[in-house]
Amino acid sequence: MSEPDELISISALQHYSYCPRQCALIHQEQTFTENVFTVRGRFVHERVDEPETRTEGDREIQTSVPLVSERLGLIGKSDVVEVLPDGSLYPVEYKHGPRRNREHDDIQVAAQAICLEEMTGKRIAEGVIYHHGSRRRRIVPITPELRAKVEEITKSVRALLQSGEMPPPADDPALCRGCSLKDACQPELVKSGKRIRQLTDTLFEPEEDAV
Ligand code: SF4
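A: This is the predicted complex of the input protein with iron/sulfur cluster.
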């Protein structure tokens, strides 16, 4: 069982899977800034931010459900948990924008499923990403591979947060373009600083036989 101070937020797994540096900036240095994507995300989540239970058609809808896994040391919240008439459970994560496959979203919903399993003793075969922009649902099968990835990333996040180190910027400009932390992170500046240091080291490398 993990000590409370070792509990890792499920959102840290999603951030790490997107970019380890983003995870460190948010969960180590408490840096958080808004961009158009986070504002849209906040707007979408306002609909499911209050805990309540209601019925829609044949299923019960529970919103803002607290989650924990003592085995993995994870803590978080599911936007929605749907309870079907046969008792099966589906964690549902709300996302802004149109339907699209994104592994970091899948990691998040799989981590929610693993927590729910531990809390209820029920096996969860699928989770759902609800894309608010297109009003479409994407089913995420909670496969053995996805479960293994959640466990692996949990270990990596824990090691990162314990090390206190700041990972280098991502090598993918597309990731940085959509990242709310771009101004705080300054990926290009950090990379060019590193290039200058490498160049300086090469120029002023000591002679092999220098004493
Ligand atoms: S700006 Fe790029 S490198 Fe920096 S945290 Fe965001 S995704 Fe990572």
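Residues 19, 21-22, 25, 169-170, 175-176, 179, 181-182, 185, 187 surround iron/sulfur cluster (CB under 6 Å). The chain has a mean pLDDT of 86.
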